[in-house]
Amino acid sequence: MKMSKDGWLTGVRRLKSPNFDARPAHAAIDLLVIHNISLPPDEFGGDGVIEFFTNTLDCTAHPYYAQLDGVKVSAHFFIRRDGSVMQFVSCLDRAWHAGVSQWQGRERCNDFSIGIELEGSDFVAFTDEQYAALKLLTKKIKQAYPIRASVGHSDIAPERKTDPGPFFDWPRYLDPK
Ligand SMILES: [Zn+2]
């Protein structure tokens, strides 16, 4: 696993999302944003998230999906329950994961962040494999970009978002071991 100059990580599955655009000129890539997601909510292992991020989700396939019709989002990375990592957007480009957000007085966190989605929810623990993969991914990203902090989606959009939720173990993630 290594970050290429084009912002794609070698050794992980690539599924290109159309939901991205260019970062503003001269934007530093200096923040990691951790999320959780599962589609349908609280169901793991299906292709819902992948389909959602690639605009191929059948919005009639589940009652919850009706509200996702036409919604265009993405993240740079998705880590499944088994620890496998997928990349949807080059780190050099702006993925659409944070929405209206602010970090240390800087708005529009998508401009300067990398978004990592963990397959999960606010109601269950993440897996050992996910922590291992997230730590390795974080290390590889930090080797390539001047990351100053890792924060939760709920830290940068507290009025709207609760993820990665109470089960995300920040000390475990941030422990360099
Ligand atoms: Zn989120």
* Portion in helices: 10-25%
Number of helices: 4
Distance between the termini: 18 Å
Structural class: alpha/beta
Overall geometry comes to: globular
- Care to count the β-strands? 12
Mean pLDDT comes to 97
Small molecules (ligands, ions, cofactors) in the structure = zinc ion
Strand order of the largest sheet: 3-7-6-11-5-12
The helix/strand order is EEEEEHEEEEEEHEHH
Strand proportion, as a percent range, falls in 15-25%
Summarize the main sheet: 6 strands, mixed
Rg calculated over all Cα atoms: 15 Å
Can you put this structure into words, describing what you see?
The chain is α/β, with parallel strands linked by helices and 177 residues long. The chain has helices at 48-53, 128-144, 153-156, 170-174, and strands at residues 2-3, 9-10, 13-14, 20-22, 31-37, 77-79, 85-87, 93-95, 102-103, 106-107, 113-119, 149-152. The protein has a six-stranded mixed sheet. The protein has a two-stranded antiparallel ribbon with strand order 1-2. A two-stranded antiparallel ribbon has the order 4-8. The two termini are 18 Å apart. The model has no long low-confidence stretch (mean pLDDT 97). The site of zinc ion has 4 residues, from loops.
Q: What labels would you give this structure?
A:
six-stranded mixed beta sheet, globular, 18% helix, 177 residues, alpha/beta, binds zinc ion, two-stranded antiparallel sheet, 23% strand
